[in-house]
Amino acid sequence: NAGVTQTPKFQVLKTGQSMTLQCAQDMNHEYMSWYRQDPGMGLRLIHYSVGAGITDQGEVPNGYNVSRSTTEDFPLRLLSAAPSQTSVYFCASTAGLAGVHEQYFGPGTRLTVT
Amino acid sequence: SQKIEQNSEALNIQEGKTATLTCNYTNYSPAYLQWYRQDPGRGPVFLLLIRENEKEKRKERLKVTFDTTLKQSLFHITASQPADSATYLCALANDYKLSFGAGTTVTVRA
User: Fold this and answer.
1) 8 Å CB contact of B42 and A40
2) Pairing outcome for strands B104-109 and B11-14
3) Which of B4, B11, B42, B95 has the fewest CB atoms found within 10 Å of its own CB?
């Protein structure tokens, strides 16, 4: 049981490049979410999904896309990277709705945009 | 606007003492409040969940209180150990989403 896995661990992009951050979970959780964490700030919700085929925006969705074609996977796409997207990105999953149940977090992806 | 504020200063305490962390919020009415631990370079790990109708919850050396009138949660680590050194995050359940505070870094000196 690997829990929540994220790839890559580190990534450097140039401004304007696109990429996909991968997230997978093997706990059969319906609810998955993406957060970014910046120094001195709390985790901020980017997008979330309550099940396959259903996604919704969080607090800071601009510049990011998501899709949820399977229960296990929830990739995050950066469409055209900007220096303001330099951050640590965490994927999380939970057995029920977020807040009501504990969230399981992945190890994070540290992204630098130059 | 909605705000979640945790102790702005880092907490440095002596081993064996009790660490008390504060989480204050405004313009939220959370039904649930959670606490997480985060070690450097790692993802947060769930510690405790408390419901709005619960005043207090305990787990081993951890204790959480939740006062919806004061709009505050207190997180206590009793008999602290150097291994408790980490950043602790509070999170409020709001409309089926979690909103996090910035965290309080605790360092326990041997």
Assistant:
1) no
2) parallel
3) B95
